[in-house]
Design brief:
The chain is an alpha/beta fold. It has 14 helices and 8 strands. Strands 3-2-1-4-5-6-7-8 form an 8-stranded mixed sheet, sandwiched between helices. The model has no long low-confidence stretch (mean pLDDT about 95).
Length: about 300
Amino acid sequence: MELGLIGLGRMGASMTRRLLSGGHRVVAYDRAPEVAKGLEGEGGVAAASLEELVEKLSPPRSLWLMIPAGDPVTQTIEGLVSLLWQGDIIIDGGNSYYKDSIARGQALTEKGLHFVDVGTSGGIWGLEEGYCLMVGGEEAVCRRLEPVFKTLAAEDGYAYVGPCGAGHFAKMVHNGIEYGMLQSYAEGFELLHASPYELDLAGLAKVWQHGSVIRSWLLELAETALAADPDLTGVQGYVEDSGEGRWTVLEAVERAVPAYVLTDSLFARFRSRQADSFGAKLIAALRREFGGHAVKSE
């Protein structure tokens, strides 16, 4: 299948490479032209502008955005609308707010275009392991894109979850749960670190991966981080939030759903910016391990 991909950052470039290895034709564009040009040696087609990107795709076109939520998505879509033909598809694979996706879908439908929102999880490991995709939009349009989803996703790692907005809603809650899981591990390992025993935290993380009810991929990443630096001395306990946790808490308030853990985990991130703690350092280290997010050095 042919696809235009806009945004070649940490995930966009890896997704492009996975698609190319799966036999798809990908026309890639990034604000930094050298990034797109660098993919030509791997079979990609570079475009120096949105206009050139559209010209190099055959209608009906499919264009996948992997760019930051908010104004960058809005501005990019506005730049594309006048270039596209009826029946073309714009896919937002970033972490946009689901209400924004609903509005964008309605606006594009009025112009004869299709909009698909794809909640994308997998971080920097997606190239090798595959991504988890939560797909929202017109079902018939989403089915047309299945060859792309199958290539990008891990085995059984994608699902059509509902109409426009549903994909980003599912990803929002997914990330809210992620916040809670990270905070749970952080508090537990901080207690272990403060114990009267000289515990091998990486060793505990390793043994808990075998038969334990708390085993998970995050625990494997905790082992990696703790084995490399048992006291996490190279990591500052400053933990950012990327928006989805806030949106999840706001949604819980709006729908009167008690979400104690998710809310507390968001507030713990706010607290991390005021003073270091071992638990916050662990979250920062884990985010570096699974998503390639930058950490602040002490």
